[in-house]
Structures are given as structure tokens and as C-alpha cells.
Amino acid sequence: MVEDVAGGIKGVEFMDYLPAGRIIKLAPSDTLVLSYLSSCWRETIAGGTVTVGAQESSVAGGKVQREKVACDGKLQLTSEQAVKSGTMVFRSAPKPNALPTAQVTLYGLSPLVELKGGGKVSIERLDRAGERLELDLPAAQLQHGAYYDLAKSNQVLAAGGLYRATAGGKQVVFKVDQHATGGQGPLVGRLLRLSAS
């Protein structure tokens, strides 16, 4: 995932998901910040030729700084991927008033919500009654028509909280890590995907 682009890099934009094997040529003054959702590596690359890998990039003729960032390390399936895969899980019957299990953990207090095309988003706290955030996000208000950063509007969730985000027919139950930090930290640790594809 592209977190930042500086310079004249063509064909690569903020929040692009890049496939493994993609080659990107950088001028000496160009800088590219990539984050890997599965390995939690965050790379700042200056100049050279970058080959995107599955877990990290290979850089020839440039400089790369890698840092391990707090992220969930697991991707949510797109609806197309979910149709092609199947799993059956047998569990004991749920206990009355039991809280659902989080599908993803966020490591920032202000999520970056991915909602292609915009719409209404509800974020409800499940482990404490009464806390709810309602957002009406027209596409024109979203970065690149798909992203809304709660940090830019100073909206924060509670560290250690369990939440359900709902948009249209999609729901994601997530928890905020008890050591989550505020502000605009690494995007890979704050990404909350609500897009259907």
C-alpha cells in the first residue's frame, strides 16, 4: 500500500495497492513510502528501482529505510475473494450478552476508513454502552474518493475499546489496541476497510 509519494513518480498514487512484482523507477529526488499489510513493514525509499515484493521491497540503486510498525498483519478479504474461498467453523453456542470477537485490531486511536464512493458510516462501541459516532461521508469529502482520516478531524476512539463499524450492508468488528497512539501514525496500523471490493 502506498502511504506517500514525493517527486515526479508516474503511475503511483497515495493509497494504491501495488501487486508483488510491480517495478517502479524513482529519480534520485523521488521518495516513496510503502507499507505491507501482511508483514507490517513500512519502507521509505529514496531513488533507485523498486520491485514490490510480497513481504517487502527490493531496491536497486536507491536507499531504503525499513521499520516494523504495529499493524494487524492480516488482510480482510474483498467480496470477490470471499466468494471464491470457503471455511466452516464449528463453535459452541454463543453465551447471552457475549461480545463478538474482533476481526481486526487497530493500532491508532483515529482510524483511516476506506469506503469507496462514500456513504454513511456508524462506529458503535460494543464494550461500553452509549458511545457512537455517525459519519455522513460524501465521495467529494474523501481522499481519492475512498478514504476518510479521523485524525484530520480530531476524532478519536478509546484505547482498548471494542467497536462495530457499519456502512451499507458491510460490518467490521474491530478493537483498538490498549497501547494505541493518537494522531496520524502509520496508515497500515489504522486502516479500517469497509469497501465492498
Question: Layout of helices and strands, plus pairs?
Answer:
Blueprint: E1 2-6, E2 23-35, E3 41-51, E4 58-60, E5 63-68, H1 79-84, E6 104-108, E7 112-114, E8 118-125, E9 132-138, E10 147-149, E11 162-167, E12 170-181, E13 191-193
Parallel strand pairs: 6-12, 7-13
Antiparallel strand pairs: 1-2, 2-3, 3-4, 3-5, 7-10, 8-9, 8-11, 11-12
Features of the shown structure:
single chain; 197 residues; mainly beta; Immunoglobulin-like; 2 domains; 5-stranded antiparallel sheet; 5-stranded mixed sheet; 1 helix; 13 strands; 3% helix; 43% strand
Describe the structure.
This protein folds into two domains: 2-68, no CATH class; 79-193, Immunoglobulin-like. The two termini are 15 Å apart. 3% of the residues lie in helices and 43% in strands. It contains one helix and 13 strands; from the N terminus they run E-E-E-E-E-H-E-E-E-E-E-E-E-E. Strands 1, 2, 3, 4 and 5 form a five-stranded antiparallel beta sheet that branches. The radius of gyration is 18 Å and the shape is elongated. With 197 residues, it is mainly beta. The relative contact order is 0.19.
